[in-house]
Amino acid sequence: MNTDTKHVREAVIRSLSAVGAIREARFYVDLFKSLKPERFAIIVPDSRCLKNPLLESLAGNIRILSDLGIYPTLVVGAFDGDPISVRFQGQGLVRELESVSVQVSKFNAASRGLVPEIRKTARRSHVPVLEMTHAGEKHGLAALAAGLKPAKVIFLQPSGGMSRDGHRVPVIDMDDPDVFDRIDPLTTGQSELVATARALDRKLDHKTVYVIASPLNLLSELFTIRGSGTLLRRSANVAHYADPGDIDRIALGTSLEAAFQRPLKTSFWTRTIRAIIVDDTYRGGAIIMKLADLPYLSKFWVTREARGEGLAGDIWRELVRHEPCFFWRSRNGNPFNDWYMQHCEGMQMSRNWRVFWCGL
Question: Are 246 and 184 in contact (CB under 8 A)?
Fold first, then answer.
């Protein structure tokens, strides 16, 4: 990376402080940059997002991403059966992107060798724009995602996600059959997006995150832990281990050190561990010990790259299922304290600490 590019990148990262902390922004920029260029994301705007003022917002956000060296694939017409309309929308999107100095390469979904061409395009710092003018599964979103293996599939809608009583719903568990009874009724478009996400999740053999967001809050969705849209996900596979010997200690230690960003004390493994709860990819978990003859939650964590995916909730549900009563403590400055306040049954301040409990 040359000096000018570094300066541009740092200036853009500082500008992202408007949507979240610079530290968060820098983490996600580095995370996205660690992927192969074509694997960052497929972004699927609906037709309303391809008209101003949302189109201007989308183009501005793509310009920021390209300045950071991040090149999503933009898909036009995934839910539009009119080829003429799709071409018109694609032309408008390309013009808007070029007007803000984004380098663009346009493709048709029926093009031969499409996926290799998109890879080449992203790797030479161009944003691929794909028009889906042909019906049929081999030209569809699933075939594209299977070839590119994106980390994210982002559906853009003016609403920016789903809501409950007018408030944003950050995470939807697609495994929960009753989840949609607990939120505001879905629009026809939202129902179609959920069905598409479920179908993609069944077909793809790699991990992909599905998000509904708005062009107006796309940067907040991408560069903050809290996000700004609605994440569509399946529950993580989380297990409870009463015998610490059943755990991959190296993987667990690596996960803890990544989450807390410091080495694990060697004395940690000499303590008496009551139980360990961890997801099958070791991206988060909980460790329960005994203290004052009571179950004590010694560690509760989610690795940084997994934050915002709802994994903490999966781990917590497994924790309270096996441990009806326990307590834990957290420093006053811990940014996770708001989450703890929502899940505890009681809390008491003690100098620089907060002591929380459930079931006591």
Answer: no
The whole-angstrom separation of Cα 319 and Cα 171 is 20
Please give the Cα distance from 106 to 127 (Å, whole number): 8
C-alpha pair distances (Å), 144 with each of 10, 36, 62, 196: 32, 16, 20, 13
Helix (H, G, I), strand (E, B) or coil at 74: strand
Q: Is the peptide bond before 263 cis (omega within 30 degrees of 0)?
A: no
What is the model's pLDDT at position 174?
Answer: 85
Structural domains in the chain plus CATH codes: 3-233 (3.40.1160.10), 238-358 (3.40.630.30)
pTM equals 0.83
Which stretches does DSSP call E strand in 2-145?
41-45, 73-76, 104-108, 127-131
Q: Which residues pair with 44 in a beta bridge?
A: 155
Q: In this structure, which long-range contacts are made by residues 111-114, counting pairs with CB atoms below 8 Å and at least 24 apart in sequence?
A: 114/144, 114/147
Rounded distance between C-alpha atoms, residue 246 and residue 273, angstroms: 12
> pLDDT tens digit string along 84-96?
999 999 999 999 9
CA dihedral 218, 93, 79, 199 (to 10 degrees): -50
* Assigned token pair, 156: 């853009």
Tell me the HSE value of 356 on the side-chain side, using a 13 A CA sphere: 19
One-letter amino acid at 45 equals: P
Question: CA gyration radius for the chain?
Answer: 22
Q: Are 198 and 141 in contact (CB under 8 A)?
A: no
The torsion angles phi and psi of 44, rounded to 5 degrees, stand at: -120, 95
Q: Quick one: pLDDT at residue 7?
A: 62
- Report pLDDT digits (tens) over 44-73: 999 999 999 999 999 999 999 999 899 999
Q: How far apart are CA 227 and CA 20, in angstroms?
A: 10
Alpha carbons 42 and 29: distance in angstroms, whole number: 16
| β-pair type (353-358, 326-331) | antiparallel
Q: What are the angstrom distances between the C-alpha of 161 and each of 194, 201, 228?
A: 11, 19, 8
